Amino acid sequence: MKLRMVVLTGAGISAESGLRTFRDSDGLWEGYNVYEVASPDGWKKDPQLVLGFYNMRRQDILKAQPNAAHTGLADLQGHFDLHIITQNIDDLHERGGATQVWHLHGEITKMRSVLDTERTYPYNDDIKLGDLAADGGQLRPFIVWFGEEVPMIEQAVKLVRQADIFVVIGTSLLVYPAAGLLDIVPRHVPVYVIDKNLPQVKQRPYLHLIEKPATEGVKELKELVQTYIQSQQN
Question: Of 4, 53, 222, 223, which sits with the fewest C-beta atoms within 10 Å of its C-beta?
Answer without folding.
Answer: 223
